User: What shape does this take?
Amino acid sequence: MEDCIFCKIAGGQIPLPLIYEDEWVVAFNDAQPQAPVHVLIVPRTHHADVGDEVSAELASALVAAIPKVAGIAGVAASGYRTIINSGADARQSVPHLHVHVLGGALMTHGMVGFA
Assistant: This one.
């Protein structure tokens, strides 16, 4: 998608330091972190949200990237949370499928937040 910031990052048009990349996804630090570690894993191809049809290969690549990114970011051993927001009610701020990997602090028992 032409105006999508995540497409531009994944395509190299907006240069950012990447935490991880493979043929399917790129991962980089969130510009507005909600945790000490807050990395986004973004498909190289545009999909508006998790409701868009994605191939089994892309879905597998997204999930496979999560523990790799957690390891690189230093939170694999202590624990981390993954979140996929989908749509306006979930407050998805960029309409491009992405996985949040959050960690680096003790989280609350609810789905979001930190102790």
